[in-house]
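Reviewer 2 asked us to include a model.

Predict the structure of this chain.
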Amino acid sequence: MSISRRTVLAAPLTLWAQPARYGILIRGGEVVDPSRGFRQRADVATAGDRVVAIEPSLDPSRAGEVIDASGMMVTPGLVDLHTHCHSGLGIGIDADPVAARSGVSTWVDAGTFAHNEIAGFRRFIVTPAKVRIYGYVYLYPNSRNPDVDPVPYVRGMIKATGEAAQKNRDIILGVKFQVGANMNGRYSLEFLKLARELCDRFELPLMAHISFAPPQTDEVMALMKKGDVVTHCFNGHTLGILDESGKVRPSVKEARSRGVLFDIGHGLGSFNFPAARKALDDGFLPDSISTDIYTLNVNGPVYDMPTTMSKLLHLGMKLEDVLLRSTYNPAQVVNRVPGMGTLAVGGPADVALLRLEEGSYTLVDSQKNAVTAKQRLVGRLAVCKGKRITAA
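Predicted model (structure tokens):
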């Protein structure tokens, strides 16, 4: 039996003509991608771990799962630059259940672990998670030996911490250090100088927590460089970005001008409505919005990323500005997945569904100052790498 050339070619053409199948189709929502100024009603389709279509209307019969997004915003997956999801200190939370209700597809653990815990962080936190997880390694491991001289001890950790960070660059973004008299006592400035030395030597970014003086804000800003992150920027403490008159300090503005980034890092004690309002009134918007979420604040006052975003909305930031600082901006700091923080064809299938609700809502800062907001953002769903995140 002979088969003609024409017959051989016809079979694959028939297969190629079949309509492509979408993994997930999100229908009827308002697609908002502030990174490219895109905001309109559209359907979004994924296949594998990519976004494959954004059109006014897509055929639901071609999708394995259809999600009704009517009345909701469809945005890039939220990126939380300051979380604690590693369990080493007993404060870490499980990322996936919170992600499922908040829309956060990318989590960054901000220094809950030291260099000798990176392997465990990868194996037990990063690998099994449905969301993307990265981390800043802490400057040094805790020492419980009272006879250890602190400064030589921390200096002795520079090589091990730097080398471990470099070997794990796929998940380690840089080094975290807590600057403040309440965190490292009289050694805080000296330790910060050691962190600067480490980051310069191993070409790593630095994330610096700021809280209570000493050291002074100007001393901290002088040690920060382009690509470094100052977190807790809207705290109401003595080591903050505001001067005594309530204006943003010149050293802070100068640090920003040379590329230092300023992050919210709400936390249990580090977001203050009066301080935030003064900074915003002085024209100083944060570069990124993050929660500093952990066991002691997940049930209040932080709750989740949309609640933190709602507080900035209440203070007068525009919706697009809030979304940009919760998606694209922190994704540029992570800088591990091309297209992260955007929602575009060919980009990663990381998606959040958010509802902007109108009403009367009580929002509380870290010092229990309460405000009544007329709007709030509520997370409804998260998709990461093309898969719907569930709480289970």
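The first strand starts at residue 22 and ends at 33. Confidence is low (pLDDT under 50) at residues 1-18. We have added this to the supplementary material.
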